[in-house]
Amino acid sequence: MCNFDFLTFHFARNYDAELYAFQARIREKFDDELLRQALLDPSYVEAERSRQVSLGMEEAALAMVDNTQLVEEGEAAAEGALREFLRAAFPFLPEEGVQAFLVHLQDVEEVSQAAFHIGTKDLIKSKVSFASRFHFLAFSHADLPLTQEYPPCKETQRKTFYALVGALKRSVGGEERWRRFVIDFLGARLHGKDLADVWDVRDPMGTLARVLQRAGRGEPESRLLWESGADSLLGCCHVGVYSDRELIGQCESRETGQYFKIDVW
Question: Which CATH number fits domain 204-261: 1.20.1090.10, 3.90.79.10, 3.40.1190.20, 3.30.160.20?
């Protein structure tokens, strides 16, 4: 048995006000119909259609349009914006690293968290309506956001974020606003991330060789620069990586015999 939440009930009756507040919080202006469409999951439309059929309507005619198309448009647009952002933010990062960051940012966990933190959890419409839980209440449930899966699952929140990108792109026209939306709320999630935690380089020297080859430079070569305490437990050696007789990077290693395997960032 569900416990009735009067705050939730009050919110459901003020969905229009919540949409206005949502736009004010993120400082963006959406076309009203597009914003409502972006928050409308296909499962909600299907549930509403099934409900009408159960009431005896042979052909349930619904004016609602779900966010499927907006999700596709927004996902493609967000990928392009993120790729350009990463290349500009990390000009010396090889393409493999850019792709690793891009995959990380497009992960369901990252995108759903971005959607959650801008306040979409209580605005998304999906699955079975709120009124089906509280059927004893005498009010219409056409505009109620809460669902059987409340809070919305991560995949639903991920799709909603991309749908918002698509809706903003259509609403504003031009690229500046929606690109900034993607970078501010999704690209910013790279803050505090370590490249080594995101990009697992299985063959660092091989990767470096490909990067240098694209830059028209020679193969990388590892050379021992100096070492100290070789016969002690705290022995340490410093290794340099050269290309065309030029030192391009150096790092310390605990084992001299393994210096050619180190990662040089």
Answer: 3.30.160.20
